[in-house]
Amino acid sequence: MNNAPTPAEARHVAFMDIGTNSIRLLLVRVNPNHSTNVLIQLKQTVRLGEGEFDEQVLQPEAIDRAVAVSQQFASLIRSYGADDVIAVATAATREAKNQREFMQRLQEAAQLDVRVVSGQEEARLIYLGVSSGFHLEDKQAFFIDIGGGSTEVILGTQHQHRYLNSLRLGAIRLSAQFPAGAQGVVSPAKYNRILNYVQRHAVHSLREMRTHDIDLALGSSGTIENLADIAARRFAKRRLQRDDVLTAAHLREVVKMLGAMPLKERRRVPGLNPERADIVLAGGAILEAFMQALDIPAIRVSDRGLREGLLMDYLLRHGHAPALQDLSVRQRSVLDLGRTCHFDEAHARTTARLALALFDSAGAAKLHPFGGWERELLEYASLLHRIGAFLTYNNYQAHTYYLIRNANLLGFDETEVAIIAATALFHRKAVPQRVHPEFAALDREAQKVVRVLSLLLRFAESLDRGHAGNVQHARFQLKNDSQVVLYIYAGQDCQIELWAVHKHVTAFERVLGCKLDIEVIMQKEAANKGRGPD
Fold first, then answer.
1. Contacts of 149 (CB under 8 A, 6+ apart)
2. Mean pLDDT throughout 59-71?
3. SS3 for 480?
4. Rounded distance, CA 400 to CA 123, Å?
5. For the chain, where do the domains classified as CATH 3.30.420.40 start and end?
6. Cα 262 to Cα 50, 180, 259, distances in angstroms
7. The 3-state secondary structure of 389-442, one letter per residue
8. What is the pLDDT of residues 253-280, one digit of tens each?
9. Does the pLDDT value for residue 340 go beyond 50?
10. Count of CB atoms within 10 A of residue 288's CB?
11. DSSP 8-state secondary structure symbol assigned to residue 51
């Protein structure tokens, strides 16, 4: 994970998304080391597109609501002394015949210069925002974002989109076009008419996307989050979690249930925002139509979107491109957390380098069966192992555990976050046992991983105990079936590190079932004997 050139000073930057259904605000601090801190994240429903799409005219009441919320957000932005404000408007505004009047109101009342983005640009920004929060590796994903006035669909990999499109299909637009029946009930026949309309309207886009491979699907927007949350509560008996998926089968069950309910009853469904109850079925039909047509069995849910895309676009345009392009989503997220906690980055990187060397040599000696996935998690745990000292040095490993578990690291699932956090927790003091709740909460396979990774991290941390880089390399070598030697290659005196390592010999023997000897080789001596670290 390489360093990149750093801008001179931190900046406060605000991003506003004036959408058809809601206005969203993201205020961040962009730090000189390329990390970002979210200061404010707000959303307010304004229904800007309500009553617009027949005549393509924004209604006066809707404009008033949007201007009032924009004024409040702009006042908040100014109170933080934002250096830059990037505000964009999407489908409802770009289609409105009275767009200029609305823009003028925003300028006069809120002192906001708002840029109206095209559908293609909206799709590109959504792709940037969502892809920056997932670890796609070499997979190609289908992205869908269902707004009030339009739906954006994208095909892309981690760093490159292959297809972008914006369709005039939105939850508010279709709800107005296909009004509900008595008491807000949406009959199966009415729902199927919406479904068929979506598929006909999207036929060209669907034909193009069928020519590409799709490895997984990612859905963003409040509509998809609400549908997935309802499904999680109904079928898994819990709230939506970060690595949950919404299956096509569960989606059909949810829309069938919601359609049969009067609107008043639907507003009370757990997991559904009451303000979205009257438009959620139209959004569900859009999602189901694409999942059916593209044979997508399940879709992962993202809480990221256009706002985060604006942030990523800003970073790419303002000197942060090397930091973004050279690092994966996971690496960038880990470094963001470490830098936010003002970690000792040099020590963290040295610890990670030593931990990976120990992992590799232990694997070659058949001391563990693990591979690339576990190795990567060890690297991240090593980089973050001391961030809790940001709060207090006493018991810092417990604070580290809490910070990792609650930092919303991007690109990781719940199991991976739990392993990273537990590895960092148990690198110090207690060896993990089932009496520890943080360890007992893991499944058996994850427990096996944490036992070994936390042990290796103990040794790596101790090998840079003085934070001076005295130890340049270390490796395990099997001496016989029951004995292992730890070779420590040092460039200068490492008595502090050697003392710290000896404290973990018993833990090594308990976890790996082998006796451990330790031998220090000074680098000059190693060169003379032909016993370099490689």
1. 19, 20, 49, 52, 53, 90, 91, 92, 95, 168, 170, 172, 173
2. 97
3. strand
4. 37
5. 11-117+310-320
6. 21, 10, 8
7. HHCCCCCHHHHHHHHHHHCCCCCCCHHHHHHHHHHHHCCCCCCCCCCCHHHHCC
8. 999 999 999 999 999 999 999 999 999 9
9. yes
10. 22
11. T
- Alpha helices, DSSP H only, in 202-305? 203-209, 222-231, 248-259, 263-266, 280-293
Distance CA 115, CA 314 (A): 14
Of 112-116, 275-279, 406-410, least confident by mean pLDDT is 406-410
Q: Residue 51 corresponds to which tokens in the numbers above?
A: 């009553």
Q: Which two tokens stand for residue 69?
A: 């919320």
- Tokens representing 108? 């006069």
d(CA 168, CA 198): 10
Give the tens place of pLDDT for each residue, 154-198: 999 988 899 999 999 999 999 999 999 899 999 999 999 999 999
pLDDT tens-digit series, residues 502-516: 999 999 999 999 999
- CA torsion angle for 447, 449, 452, 455 (degrees, to 10)? -70
How many residues appear in the chain? 534
CATH class of 11-117+310-320: alpha beta
| Residue 489 scores a pLDDT above 60 | yes
Q: At what angle do helices 396-406 and 414-425 cross, to 10 degrees?
A: 170
* 260 residue type, one letter: A
Residue 141 parent element (H or E): strand 141-146
329-529 fold: Hypothetical protein af1432 (1.10.3210)
The DSSP output letter for 179 is: -
Q: Where in the chain is the domain with CATH 3.30.420.150?
A: 134-303
CATH 1.10.3210.10 placement within the chain: 329-529
DSSP 334-366: HHHHHHHTT--HHHHHHHHHHHHHHHHHHHHTT
Interval 1-37: pLDDT, tens: 544 444 568 899 999 999 999 999 999 999 887 788 8
Q: 0.85 cut: is pTM over it?
A: no
Q: What is the distance between the alpha carbons of residues 28 and 101, in angstroms, rounded to a whole number?
A: 30
**Three-class SS state of 55:** coil
366: alpha, beta or left, given left = phi > 0 and alpha = psi -120 to 50? left
Closest CA to 450 of 511, 527, 532: 511
Q: Which residues contact 119 (CB under 8 A, 6 or more apart)?
A: 91, 94, 150, 152, 165, 166, 167
Q: How confident is the model at residue 199 (pLDDT cuts 50, 70, 90)?
A: very high
Long-range CB pairs of 350-354, under 8 A, 24+ apart, other chains included: 350/464, 350/467, 350/469, 351/382, 351/383, 351/385, 351/457, 351/460, 351/461, 351/463, 351/464, 352/379, 352/382, 352/383, 352/460, 354/459, 354/460, 354/463, 354/464, 354/471, 354/473, 354/474
Architecture of domain 134-303: 2-Layer Sandwich (3.30)
